[in-house]
Amino acid sequence: MFDPGAPYRCSPQVSLRPEPFGALVYHFGTRKLSFLKTLPLVAVVKGLESHPDVHSAIEAAGVEEAQRPAYLKALAGLAASGTIEPR
Amino acid sequence: MKLVDHFQYGLNSPICLTWELTYACNLSCAHCLSSSGRRDPRELTTAEAKAVIDELQRMQVFYINIGGGEPTVRPDFWELLDYSIAHNVGVKFSTNGLKIDKQRAAQLAATDYVDIQISLDGATPEVNDYVRGPGSYDMAIRALENLAEAGFQQPKISVVMTRQNVDQLDEFKAIADKYGAQLRITRLRPSGRGADVWDELHPLPSQQKQMYDWLVDRGDQVLTGDSFFHLSAFGEALPGLNLCGAGRVVCLIDPVGDVYACPFAIHENFLAGNVRSPGGFQEVWENSELFTELRQPQTGGACSGCQHYDSCQGGCMAAKFFTGLPLDGPDPECVRGFGEQALAARGDDHVVPKSEVDHSRTKIGKNTPVLLQLSMGRPDRACETSPLAGMGASQSDSGLRVPVAGS
C-alpha cells in the first residue's frame, strides 16, 4: 500500500527520458512504457530518493498545495506499477 | 494539453523505431512494403550498425523493431541482436521463421529483452502462401513450434489484414493460443509492392466494419501496432495511439541508413536524411526539414469539416500518398466512403507515385507467390522457339497454382 509518509525512490529498473511535456518512463523489468505528464511530477519522482518521505519531495518540487491530492494519486499509480518503490 | 497532443509536436526520441537491417529476403511476398528481395551493396556494415545502436542507447530509445527483408539472413544478425540488448536497446524482430530452428529457439528463449514476431498472412496454407509464397506457411508454423518447444514466452504472430483473411480472424487467434503466442494484426498499406496488389487485397468496406467489431470485442488481447486508427470513426476509439506518428514518435531506418518518416513511406518525399551523414541519426531526428515540417500543427484539409476527424485524424499518410490521394484529404479506406469517392475522382490518367527504392527479385523462383507469378508472367508468343513453349516458367517446381483466395 502506498504510504506518502514513508521514504520512496525511483526504481533502479526504471529509466526516465526527458520529453517536452515531462518524461517517458521505461521499466526494464516489465518492459512497459508510461509517461510522467508534467515537469513537476518528474522533479518529484527524481527527488524521492533524497527526501525522508513523499510529502517532502512534493513540497521540494514546488507543487502547489491545491495540486497535492492529484500528485499523490499519480504517485500511488506509479507505486502500483513499480515505477517508484519504498526504500 | 492532452498527451496525444504533445505527441503531434514530436518527442525527443522516437518511441517506435523500425530498423530494416537488409533488403535481402528468401521470400518475395506480393505485398512487401519495402519491395525487398535482393541485398543492397550499400547496406550498413556491422561496425556502422553498432554505432547506430550506441546512438540509440544515448538517445534512450529503449527498444527497436528490427525487420527487413528477412533480417536473420544477415550473417551478423545474432551479433547485432546481442550487442543491442547489451546496450539497453531491447529488440523485437520480425521474421518469416527461416532461421528459427530448435537451436536458435532455445538460445532466444534464454535471452532477455528480445521479442519475436512471426509473419503469417493466412490461417491456412492456401491463404497465406497465396501472398507470401509456397512453403511460407509451413516455415512460420515450424518456427512457432520450435519457439513453443523451447519455452519462449509469448512470441507474436503478425498478420497483415487482407480481403482474403479477414474471415480467418478467429482462426488466427486459435493458432496464437495453440502456440502460446500473442496475435498482432496490422493494416495492409499500398507501400512497396503493396501498391501493385492493393486493389485486389485491401479489405472491402464491409470487412473494415467486421475488423472494427472484432477489435472492439478483443482489443485488449490483440496488438495492432495502432494501425487501425482510421477505423475509430466507426464509433469508439480503439486502444492505442489514435494518431499518425510519422516523424513525430515513429520513424524508419532502412538498410542503407536512410531515415524515413515511417516504415510504410519508403519514398524520396518522406526521406529525412541518412545516419551516415554528420550528426548521425540524432541530427536527422531532431533537425531534419521533413520531420520539423511533420511536427507542425496539422490541418484537416478536406476532412476538417467532418465530425469524425478528431477520431480518425484523416487516416494514414502513406495509404493516401501511394494511392495518389492528397495528404490533407480522406484516407482511401475512410469508413464514411469519402476515400472511395476520392479514388474514383482521380481520373483514368492519374499517376500513382512510385518509389525508386526497389530490391525486388527480377526472376521467378520457387518461393515466388502465385500472385506475383501471375502478374510477372510473360505471355507466350507464337514465335517462341523453345520446345517448352506453353509451359515456360510454370515448369518451375512451385507450379502455377490458380489463386484460391479472392475468387
TrEMBL record, chain B:
Gene3D superfamilies listed in its UniProt record: Aldolase class I
Organism domain of life: Bacteria
Signal peptide segment: none
Pfam family, one: SPASM
Boundaries of every Radical SAM core domain copy: 11-226
Coiled coil: none
Record flagged with keyword S-adenosyl-L-methionine: yes
Classification via InterPro entries: 4Fe4S-binding_SPASM_dom, Aldolase_TIM, Elp3/MiaA/NifB-like_rSAM, Heme_synthase-like, MftC, PqqE-like, Radical_SAM_PqqE_MftC-like, rSAM
Cofactor needs: [4Fe-4S] cluster
Official protein name in the record: Mycofactocin maturase MftC
